């Protein structure tokens, strides 16, 4: 069994959707795919993508990203909490899962999340340009920290067999130093909406040795304090320099 990782496939773009359709139906029948969020801004496109991967892999494990919880493009009125529940139900109906998976001595654990300002406070410029502030809808009075706390609480009861090798994954970054130093100052504007340091505490509590993340669209592998962090984002069609645009094998037994 092999484990592959991919995030930020954004099948709202027809070229990205065509790439998914072209993935081999024969090469991954015994393998696991970690799909670390940002599949589509609409439930219908998300479902088609997850279903396509579920037809190609033995197991697809998923966490929603911020785009997956957008409601602005949905025909039916809902808030983003209801969208999360509908996404979870659709994913399960496709044969994929948001639940931990164990095979032999390997455990793969999804971590839900949102950004919580632990990487910095968003300024007015970021609030004006960051689409989540308009495309998501939350209960009245909820602030960013309330949203993050809601999803991060979902991870507190997770556990794994003590002897197992543990892989965790999230859409959001668990630490801001995963962003490389070469990022230009003008692009650091978005750092406050990239993730949550609580995720790092949670994955280390689980004993993770490998963590897959997405969201930043900056493909990277780095080892920090004994944990290997990997981002393999597909990204937007124009992002050919920072995204590999291919499946990446992150584990093989």
TrEMBL record:
Protein's UniProt name: UDP-2,3-diacylglucosamine pyrophosphatase LpxH
Top-level taxon: Bacteria
Signal peptide range: none
Domain Calcineurin-like phosphoesterase: 1-218
GO MF: hydrolase activity
UniProt xrefs under SUPFAM superfamilies: Metallo-dependent phosphatases
Alphabetized InterPro entries for the sequence: Calcineurin-like_PHP, Metallo-depent_PP-like, Pantetheine_PDE
Annotated Pfam families: Metallophos (PF00149)
């Amino acid at each position: 069994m092999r484990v592959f990782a991919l995030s930020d496939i954004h099948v709202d773009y027809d070229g990205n959707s065509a790439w998914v359709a072209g993935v081999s139906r024969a090469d991954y029948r015994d393998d696991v795919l970690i799909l670390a969020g940002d599949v589509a801004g609409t439930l219908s496109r998300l479902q088609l993508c997850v279903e396509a991967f579920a037809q190609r892999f033995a197991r697809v494990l998923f966490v929603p990203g911020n785009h997956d919880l957008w409601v602005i493009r949905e025909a039916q009125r809902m808030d983003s909490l209801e969208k999360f529940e509908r996404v979870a139900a659709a994913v399960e109906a496709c044969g994929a899962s948001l639940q931990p998976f164990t095979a032999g001595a390997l455990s793969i654990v999804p971590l839900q999340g949102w950004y919580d300002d632990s990487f910095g406070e968003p300024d007015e410029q970021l609030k004006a340009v960051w689409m989540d502030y308009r495309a998501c809808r939350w209960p009245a009075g909820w602030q960013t920290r309330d949203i993050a706390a809601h999803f991060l609480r979902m991870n507190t009861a997770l556990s794994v067999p003590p002897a197992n090798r543990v892989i965790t994954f999230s859409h959001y970054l668990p630490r801001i130093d995963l962003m490389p130093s070469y990022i230009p100052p003008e692009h650091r504007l978005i750092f406050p909406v990239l993730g949550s340091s609580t995720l790092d505490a949670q994955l280390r509590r689980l004993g993770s040795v490998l963590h897959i993340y997405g969201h930043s669209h900056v493909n990277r592998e780095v080892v920090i304090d004994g944990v290997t962090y990997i981002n393999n984002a597909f990204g937007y069609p124009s992002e050919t320099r920072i995204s590999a645009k291919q499946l990446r094998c992150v584990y093989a037994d």
